[in-house]
Design a protein that fits this description.
By secondary structure, the protein is α/β, with parallel strands linked by helices. It is built from five helices and 14 strands. Bound molecules: cytidine-5'-triphosphate and calcium ion (CA).
């Protein structure tokens, strides 16, 4: 009995995926982070690998094993993630699933901050580089297909449309991350896929799915586009 060969619609394609949160140090023992588990990004990397792609996954700190056959680079901060992403170029398809911390601490303590009678330490925040926007706006090495996520807790579609335009990416997977949805850290996701069709933005609303099913649906949609 010979097992039928898996269809490998992304054979020969290089795919880059970011995943997980980033950790932004406050001092040697503390950091700022968010509730991202990395599950959605890891599932996308695994699905792209199964579809035959050569996949590099750049992940912040998560409690997940390397997906089989995927090159995994583990990073801590947003700036490290950006450097690793730049080093992985060129690629055919870049998918930015990481929940990058928007701010880092400018006045990071070299030593553990101590309680003093002077009160609480003032944390100065500065904005992190926008990894997705940086890559989407590259003149030379911009991947032909750049895909982002839009994590929103209100005005989902309007915010996602604005994000698509602002970031210069081709597609956005918009998801409601309000606490009641359980998306952050959970196993399911409800996606609205926004794609640019010339000057128009097309919105496809998918039913609630597991993060693995979302990954498979996204890879199938990429394969359909790649075939054209
Ligand atoms: N992203 C990124 N680098 C950042 C911030 C976000 O690469 N510094 C990417 C995320 O991986 C995601 C997309 O940009 O694909 C949107 O992230 P999101 O947090 O929803 O958007 P922001 O532009 O940070 O806007 P806000 O958090 O204010 O809604
Ligand atoms: Ca953000």
């Amino acid at each position: 009995f010979v097992r039928p060969a898996q269809p490998r619609p992304l054979a020969g394609k290089r795919v880059l995926v970011t995943a997980g949160p980033t950790h932004e140090p406050i001092d040697p023992v503390r950091y700022i982070a968010n509730r991202s588990s990395g599950k959605q990004g890891f599932a996308i990397a695994a699905a792209a690998q199964t579809a035959g792609a050569d996949v590099t996954l750049i992940s912040g700190p998560v409690d997940l094993d390397d997906p089989k056959g995927v090159t995994v680079r583990r990073v801590e901060s947003a700036r490290e993630m950006l450097h690793r992403v730049e080093a992985a170029l060129p690629v055919d398809i870049a998918i930015f699933a990481a929940a990058v911390a928007d701010w880092r601490v400018a006045n990071e303590g070299e030593q553990k901050l101590k309680k003093t009678s002077a009160g609480m330490p003032p944390l100065q925040l500065v904005e992190n580089p926008d990894i997705l926007a940086t890559i989407a706006k590259l003149a030379d090495k911009r991947p032909p297909l750049v895909i982002g996520f839009a994590a929103e807790t209100e005005h989902l579609i309007d915010n996602a449309k604005a994000k698509l335009a602002r970031k210069g990416c081709d597609w956005i997977l918009a998801n409601d991350v309000s606490p009641a949805t359980g998306v952050m850290g959970g196993d399911r996701n409800t996606i609205h896929l926004l794609t640019r069709e010339g000057a128009e933005i097309n919105v496809d609303s998918w039913p609630v799915m597991t993060k693995e099913q979302v990954a498979a649906a996204l890879v199938a949609r990429i394969a359909k586009t790649a075939e054209k």
